[in-house]
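In the current project phase, the collection of sequences with tokenised folds has grown. One resulting record follows, to show the layout:
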Amino acid sequence: MASPISLSPSSTNSTSSLPFRFFGLPYELRRKILAYLLLQDHIIDLDPANAATNPARINLFLTSHRMHEEAYHVFYGGHSFRIFPIHPRFFGSRVKSVISRLSPRYRATLISLELRLGTGWSKPPKTWTVTSKLGLQDCIRVKNLEVFVECDPSHQIFHGFRVSIDFFTDFSSNLLGQIVNGLPSLEQVTFNRHGPSVQRDSDLMSRLQEAVLKGQKRIAWAKGKWLDEEGENQRAQRKIRFPIS
């Protein structure tokens, strides 16, 4: 009968002190681990909170050249980035957007962008315009653009506060048209909204859709965000079974 094998303290210590070979793992598994470490469930934008949350993740890029090459693809390709900042601290005419601050090779890995309309509806910053400095021409992998509409200043509740009834509509549709034309690989624009105050058949939404169609892109609607009372009633009526007389 063989005697049980015993490990000496020296052998166990030498085994436990061996470094873990991360790059010895399969590529797909490494990407999953990096995604677990790097990805957050929110849109990346200029925000004071970034100083407390992102450095610990971005520091992983500094581990080695090989780690940087794999990690930045996961980080920038796994998040959606906001084209223009909306945080009050960074909302102004002299602030560069997070997109324009990225290097061209980082912008080339982006997959999803967001345009949020509504903040500063009476006086949008002058930097909210599309030029070569914004860098959309480098976003060659972006297929989908989400347009989040916070409010519609043409609504009567904004009467007395807005510049004019068409000011924000004209500004938003022109800006969206520039972005659609500036993204070389864009295929689809998805519309989202903050609440029912933004109507799907409003002049604002109609003009935004025209800007997308003019650029020959598809239009999609965020699931569960555009169910108004009229639509609910129509669906309910279709389910009614009338007796045959």
